[in-house]
Amino acid sequence: MxxxxxxxxxxxxxxxxxxxxxxxxxxxxALDRLAREIARALPKLRGGLLIGHGAGSFGHVAARKHGVxxxxxxxRGLRGAARTxxxxxxxxxxxxxxxxxxxxPTFSLAPSSFLTSRSGKPRTVGLDALCGALDRGMLPVxxxxxxxxxxxxxxxxxxxxxxxxxxxxxxxxxxxxxxxLWLGETxxxxxSEGRTLSRLRRKDLRGLGAAVGGSRGTDVTGGMAHRLDxxxxxxxxxxxxLICDGRVRGRLGRALAGKDVPGTHVVx
Length: 268
Hints:
Layout (H helix, E strand, L loop, with lengths): L5 E7 L1 H4 L10 H14 L6 E6 L2 H11 L8 H28 L3 E3 L6 E4 L2 E5 L2 H8 L3 E5 L1 E5 L3 E5 L1 H14 L3 E9 L14 E3 L6 H5 L10 H13 L5 E5 L5 H6 L7 E4 L1
Parallel strand pairs: 1-2, 1-9, 2-6, 3-6, 9-11, 10-12
Antiparallel strand pairs: 4-5, 7-8, 11-12
Helix pairs in contact: 2-4, 3-4, 6-8
């Protein structure tokens, strides 16, 4: 490539766009607002944007019900994996519809169509469709999905693991990943007194995941602890992260514009 394409990673947390204490409960007002903020920011964004979203009260509830993501699956478990995949895809279509209504040039990508795993960890990844969408100025959108697994038959690939699998491969392709934005329903990472930690270095994260804990509501992939681990791993690749509260109107738009917003910065 004659130039280095810039890229921002954005995760819309499942707890932000759905009510994870319920079953298949979409926070439609929040989702529509976030979609509008994204669409307004795109023309001014320096570089491309890759969106990933969680499975929320769709995929997580189904995965827990059918025992998907814990190990090898028998025939009954594989049928449960198919149902889980269907529910995750159902939420994805709702997210895509919101972005299209807002005017964003979305390009939907099911991770199960370009990625396989082994024992729950991404193994093979195809980049052609994703890079093609980015290079044409489109907005690729991925999500936590059920994928083929060489050892288990099928397993869950979270958005965090998708970003971790894609980041080094995109960097080798010549993309410069400027940062990752993680939007949820907290101001960031809190200290023992409930105050937001504004800045964390990778070495500060050791042992912090256990203290942070999981997610409110149903979650089979680890919640905030999983997100913090992913942010630390991205920091090891010189990719900074911002974990912030997506419930605040305008915050996503300001973050995409590069403005200072409250939250926790995880830096290399």
